[in-house]
Each structure stands twice: as structure tokens, then as C-alpha cells.
Design a protein that fits this description.
Length: about 110
């Protein structure tokens, strides 16, 4: 378990919350992770990613950004997250976007 995952879980517990920590095992980009996020929106936030620069595939299905808040996660889910970052080659005709993951999901 990652320290950031535990810290996020602790922030999400307490008064006015469910009152207990709920951890689940997910496979994110092929890596086993233990998280406390209950929705895709919460997961993207917990991972520290900017939602406008991320595409998410949940169990081999692309989930549109406008459905992340209502898309629940469950133990054993498999996710592929592609995070776009600025930068790249200044050469004419080259894209100014590079990809942190080898796999690009086109919608």
C-alpha cells in the first residue's frame, strides 16, 4: 500500500463521513494498488491527476469524463489511465502533447 493512498483514506474519513475506512484493491495500468476512492472522480483526485488531462478505461470500457462522479469502483476493478502532459518537440508539425503511458486510447 502506498503512503499517499493511506493519507487520502484518512482525509476521507471522520465526522460527517461514513466513519470507517474502505480500502479496495485495483489494478491501475497493470500495477496492483490499494485505494480508498469510491468513484472514478475521487480516484483521479486521489492520484493527483488533472481531470482535463486524463482518459480512463474501466474494465476495458472507456468512461466519459461526465460520468466519472457517478461511476463507482469495486474491489478487483482494472483501470488503464492515460495522462497527457504538455511539452514535446518544437519542430513544425510535431505534436505538443506527449503521453506518459505507452497505450493511447482514442475516442
Amino acid at each position: 500500500m502506498y503512503v499517499a493512498d493511506i493519507s487520502a483514506a484518512l482525509r476521507n474519513s471522520g465526522p460527517g463521513r461514513r466513519g470507517r475506512l474502505a480500502f479496495m484493491n485495483l489494478k491501475i495500468n497493470g500495477e496492483d494498488r490499494v485505494v480508498s476512492a469510491e468513484t472514478l472522480s475521487a480516484l483521479v483526485e486521489q492520484l493527483g491527476m488533472k481531470p482535463d488531462r486524463v482518459a480512463v478505461e474501466l474494465n476495458r470500457e472507456i468512461v466519459p469524463r461526465n460520468r466519472w462522479g457517478e461511476t463507482g469502483l469495486k474491489d478487483g476493478d482494472q483501470l488503464e489511465i492515460v495522462h497527457f502532459v504538455g511539452g514535446g518537440s518544437p519542430h513544425q508539425g510535431d505534436s505538443d502533447i506527449s503521453i506518459e503511458k505507452e497505450k493511447l486510447i482514442l475516442i
